[in-house]
Amino acid sequence: MPAISTLGFILHDATPSCQLGDARTGDSSAISTPQQHNPATTTALRVAPNHQWISTTPGRIAKGQPWMMAIHWAADPKAKRYTPSSSHGPKAMNHTTLRIAQELANLKVCRPGVAYLMRKLKLSERSVEYHLGMLREAGLLVYRTKGTRVSGAVGQASVFERVIPVAYDEAHGIRTVGEGVQRRQVGAAQEARSILGKLSKKAARKVRKPRSKTASKRGGRCTLMQGGTSGLSSAGSTTSPSESKLASGKTDSPTPKSTSRPRRVLNKVGRRHQLAKELIQQEPWLGTAAVPRIAWVVRHVADAGWSATEVRAFLHHCASHRSDNIRRPSAVLATRLRAALTILRSAKDRQECVEAWRESQVAAQQRHNPADWQDLGPGPRSAVAQRELARAQELIRQRKAVAVAPSTEADGPEIFADSPAMALEDLSRAEVLEMRAAAAHDPSVIGLAIELIGETQARRLYTNAAVNRFLADQETANV
Question: What residue spans carry the Basic residues bias annotation (predicted)?
């Protein structure tokens, strides 16, 4: 039975595992034998991969400042104690290694994710991986649990343990008590204490990001060298400038402003947002839409080089006006632009669409100009619509007659017979409902009302929805 137990202990200690428990601890109080210390000896650091685990490392666990002392000792550029085995990457430990080790020393549980170190230290992923590998290879960092990268699942970060290699203890004649990785320091060689004191000062200082070595392009600063309340002038022996130079007000600044800036060129995403903003500003029915949403809707036409005028011309002249009960403005725009690139395939086609749209706008203005009306036509065919039209015409004639007649009141207000608002206010609710029903039966009544009393009053009488539907039908018929 003891032989089986001993065999199991040896196998557990020799084979690294992906999930290990706490390291072996011993309650022995025996102090290790002091090593023969020789300060002139340079000890090389290199740990094989199978010894980079908590169960197989010959080092001892350390935290905080003692571990940072070992880091500064191993990263000393003059001693060259460690040389990476990899042919690519950093050739030795440097300032970045110290910054990463400082972050690891501040962690209560040494489980640093690569993304965390990248975000905290502003480093690339490859740099973090290189320096963590160097710390492991130098025997300063060992695995307690190795991270996992399973496809389709969240990756787990590796759990490390900070250790001090045996070479560090041998180089300074450090005596330890305990067993295995749980050994702790109880003394050091007399001649190595000054070196340990210097390492302790280095470990106590915070390692900061080095400043850029690029020289500043600005000129020298103007700083007052003298001051206070003494009678000595702060200007020293400088000579005052002449009055001509003071009067001109022109001087050369030591930091002249750069007036010639290169024009900013929009990329593909910026062009989409620019087109979306222009459409929202120029089309009232897109006023409540968000710019990013409209930019995504118009991405195809924006990438094809369409301008806001070309998009508006296509919407009003070439696109279908059917929305299929779609209420959101962005959805209406997406529906109407669905076949834009198929209908208008070239810049010439888009230009022809713009010209046709502008001609239709001019024709619509001429069509709604009262000075150009010559003949109102035969009028509606429906008897109900004809009766309502005759009633409206009679009401307008009465108002004009009242306007022509002089007012009987000396100080009374002047009456305008051609005021449509007064005519609409005189209508009862039943009459308004009857006229709206007639317009729903025969939409041509709305066109006559627009010609007689104007579009504004027609919208008051027949509602905006009815007038918009009538105008859209007229525009489609004209196309």
Answer: 199-220
